[in-house]
Amino acid sequence: MAFLSRLITFFGLILLAHAGYSAHEHTVLSSNTRLSTSSTALPQDIIVETLVSLVVVSLGLVLGAEKLKPISWSQWAGEIEKEGGGRNPYSRLEERYSFWDVRAKRKEFSEWIRGQDAMAAQ
């Protein structure tokens, strides 16, 4: 899909360049004429070509874009955990020496609670 999206984007950019060139030529030709001050608005075909080229470029860019990330934080974090944390953007923060390891503290606390329950049951 990457080749197709690049091709569509390139075609749209060619159309956009042609529309820009046509608009420039129209303004140059209309400014060179010594006729009465008639309307120098762009012709409809140039406007349509510009709009179509913008739609084609947008379509090519959207088709070539990466897969969107989930919106909810918990779903995104869950996907990172399932993959083993390879693409975790906060991995450098979690590897710092002074960073408090929440998972280890939770495990330590749950073992302490289990030990307290076992002592109370005896």
TrEMBL record:
Residues 1-19 form the signal peptide. InterPro entries: EMC_subunit (IPR053279), MMgT (IPR018937). One of its GO terms (cellular component) is EMC complex. It holds the Pfam family MMgT. Keywords: Membrane, Signal, Transmembrane, Transmembrane helix. It is found in: Endomembrane system. The keyword Signal applies. GO terms for biological process: protein folding in endoplasmic reticulum. It comes from the Eukaryota. The keyword Transmembrane helix applies. The chain crosses the membrane at residues 46-65. Belongs to the membrane magnesium transporter (TC 1.A.67) family. This is Magnesium transporter.
